[in-house]
Amino acid sequence: MSEDGKSLYVTAPYLQNRELSWLEFNKRVLDQGIDDTVPLLERLSFISIFWSNLQEFFMVRVGSLTDLSLLKKTIIDQKSGMTPAEQLSAIYKRCHELYPYYEDCFNKLQQLLLQEGILNVENHEIDEEQRAFLDEHFQNNIMPFLSPQIINAHHPFPHLENGALYVVVRLDEHGSKKKSKTEKGGAEGVTLGIIPLPRQCERIVKLPGAGCQFMLLESIIEMNAAAIFNMYKVKHTNVICVTRNADLDAAEGSEEQGEDYREQMKRILKRRARLAPVRLESHRELSTTVKRELLERLQLKSYQTFVSAVPLDMSYVYDLRKYIDSQKLSQLTYEPFTPAWPACLDRKRSVINQIVERDILVSYPYESMDSLDMLLREAAVDPAVVSIKITLYRLAKQSRMAEALIAAAEAGKEVTAVFELRARFDESNNIEWSQRFEQAGCKVLYGFRELKVHSKICCITRQTPDGLQHITQLGTGNYNEKTAALYTDFSFMTADPQIGEDATMFFRNLALECLSDEYKTLWVAPLMIKQHILDGIDEQIERHKQGLPSGLFFKTNSITDLEVIEKIVEASQAGVKCTLLVRGISCIVPGLADYTGNVCVVSIVGRLLEHSRIYCFGPLDADARIYMSSADLMTRNMDKRVEIAWPITNERLRQEVIGYIGTCMADTAKLRDLLPNKEYTPLRFFAPEDPQTGMPVLFDAQAFLIGEAQKMNLAAAELDAFARASSIADSPCMTARQHQSKKKKKLKPEDLPAIETTAPIVPNLQDAPVSSAQTKTIPVSPKEQEQEQKQEQAFGYGMKSPNKQANSTQAATTMPIDAELLQKLVDNTPRPEPVAKAVARHAKAAHDKDKVLYNSPETFFEKPQEDNQIVIPAEKTGFFSRLFGK
Description:
This protein is α/β, with parallel strands linked by helices. Helix content is 37%, strand content 15%.
């Protein structure tokens, strides 16, 4: 440490502080609020997400650093060399820079909403009719619920709840004295009055008038402050909000008190509400007197105060939609979509039987979580099922999956649920569910005392004539129906006996609170995942030294672990290309010639939250080993949590994952590149221009996959209608006329309606043909062959997948009827470009302002045609030559 208290720790140039990187991620969220390709009300939602993200950041990360700054021992951040105090200083400075941008984004959006007739009315903007309405509404619906308080020697400063809004009123202490014994007056020495917003009142009050004019509750209370404090002279008012530290150690004091773990968590949640403040926000500048009083009472410094003309609680934006006319609402929001039933599963057949036949990979939210619900409901009534074991981290408040597990327990199955009660801000919900599970007869466990159980695994054990059989489900995300509709995740279901044995061992170790590295197929943290990742990177370094194809790809929410970063830098220096698709924090800085010249870091922030974790070792267009996981590349996941990673060995599923990666990397609308200066390229930086209109040509990967899900839903509906029409002949109620009509016309594939598609195929269609460059023989079960023969006899056509274009690279493959018919509607589409080329497009140097001209994407594994090459200006090829050896 230097004399002025600053750290003298020397850090590597390719590292950056995680907190500052997170703030840049949240700015990318805010950028969606000014993206004119996003519907207006959705842009308002992104501004609200920015607000809620920042609220949690201050509660957790700033709160934690505040605690560390109070310790006698100085703890240095290894990635930035900063002390906790220095990090806090940098955070507050950056936030003071972000607030004006936040306000500007909100104000611009308000002007656009005004053009649509949506207006948040201020006090000075209301007309006489609206004023009369508000006066009556205040007296009848707000005033009875108010609990105002004055502050003086007899009335101490109240506890201000975390995140709650208060109207603070500056009162004239000289105007509150009583004039005589008979006159009414206020107390002496009063300078402040505080009014909490009542929870019983609606936050949004719709006003009479054209369109959707409304006023927020805090504005109405401010407007009536003089009536509330009618014994005092009101000088001015403001709205304030206090953010408190919410970072608590769940293990603290548990052994000494010897209490039940669930009761301990309840006690901790009560303590959280009264922790120290870390931020004070006000809607307008505070007067000198009020600011001094509040800072003294809250023990805050001036730099911890923020002024924002944006409403201090932006959660109202979700309720606003119910006040907007439905036709207008449809114009200002995303088109709703329903996740498709997974094309790889026959809804009318046993899910368990289909998993026994082949591995299943479901992609949320493009495909529905209903398949997992159906699996659990089927297991609840399957006589062969002996037990169901599952880890639960975050459950929805209303969870069909949880109800299915409870139903299984009530039906006599042995159900074991490992609850993680420390899932931050979901503790209360998990406590309630754990109590319900216990009441239903489930065995409830809480995992490890020192480690959070963040794994997503379910093991169903069946007693079959051939012995015990394990159906294992593994996921990259939570078992939560609500987030499954908003987060991109994968769910893998298999009857692989080796994975089943590992799953059984995993739950046995959880019950005994035992760590193990003896799993044969699964990687389980904290003893295996990081170690295998480091070994996998070493393997690619060695392959590159031997002149063999090499490469690395990781998709993760964040990368902060120093050991993993150092190993990636080592690989880059050895010449191994590494692509990181990181939604949030990236503590590694790419593009630095001597360190990370072969590293590319890109990020997608869009309509859906990118949440899946994928590890790839080797070039994706060759023989890459692919793992999926619940673990991010963060120290907390690798060393402080129980996480699981599993291999994708089935070739069809490997192609799906690679196709999904390619679709993400082909994005030109939301994908952004982290530059060596630690900034991100702007939105649409990589979008090619239409030579005729000069407008950017955008490809939004998430929007495309959502569109494909909608088409799959439509295709499934058409397939059902086709099946119903075909089965009329078997109906005993069919008339002779209907039967004769049926005989005259046989339904053929061409009778199905055509659906146009113009973008890469959804990569989740397991029975889809692969490219000709790597054509595989897809095994067809005897049952499926029998089904095909019956359908060929009934309908007069075979089940070969049609080639629609003469130059199509897709190979015809025999498939079961459901997949074939669904594929027919979407198979005639180009696939994403090769990953290496997608990476090349996005890994541009900071000074390179020329756009990459990129034409239609080619099939993933094929060499591009001459007219579909990436065109790079000759004087700008240095970085690409260094990256790809071109």
